[in-house]
Design goal:
The chain is of the alpha+beta class and 155 residues long. It has three helices and nine strands. The protein has a five-stranded mixed beta sheet, with no helix packed on it. Strands 2-1-4-7 form a four-stranded mixed beta sheet, with no helix packed on it. It is rod-shaped. The protein binds copper (II) ion (CU). The site of copper (II) ion has 6 residues, from loops.
Length: 155
């Protein structure tokens, strides 16, 4: 019985020590959010022709500033993005530009805004806004630190 009590006491001490280490680690890592990958600016040139966009997929990270330049190679084409306030229209040989911040995460279809022919409904591309991973990691570490601190003061 005495032995059991001793080992239990050791486990408790180990728990406190582990919490202390966690808090120290947290103190070391908490400034991470500021060092998370800064938002980037992308300038993306998209050509439109019957009946496709090139490139058909655009991938950016959340928080990035995106400048889209839409150029038409044949007819009047448009580009609007579902879920974003983005709407472009351009004539053959000309281009239109818009700048926006990709503040919503996920996959968003972009479509031609002008009925340009038989396959117009299939003139679809995709904007892929991925999570800002370093920021997410920093958030996770902060969360672990808070839990560690709670565990420490709970004892
Ligand atoms: Cu079209």
């Amino acid at each position: 019985m005495t032995q059991w009590t001793t080992s239990h006491g050791r486990t408790r001490h180990f728990g406190i020590a582990a919490s202390a280490v966690l808090v120290m680690l947290a103190a070391f890592f908490v400034p991470l959010p500021t060092s998370a990958r800064a938002a980037q600016a992308h300038r993306i040139h998209i050509t439109a022709r019957a009946f496709a966009f090139a490139p058909g997929t655009v991938t950016v990270q959340r928080g990035d500033t995106v400048t889209l330049q839409l150029e038409s190679l044949d007819a009047v084409h448009g580009l609007y993005i579902d879920g974003y306030d983005v709407n472009l229209l351009t004539e053959p040989g000309k281009s239109a530009t818009i700048t926006f911040v990709a503040d919503k995460e996920g996959k968003f279809k972009f479509r031609c805004a002008v009925a340009c022919g038989a396959l117009h409904p299939f003139m679809i591309g995709e904007l892929n806004v991925t999570p800002n991973l370093p920021f997410a990691r920093a958030l996770l570490i902060t969360l672990v630190a808070v839990m560690g601190a709670v565990a420490l003061f709970w004892k």
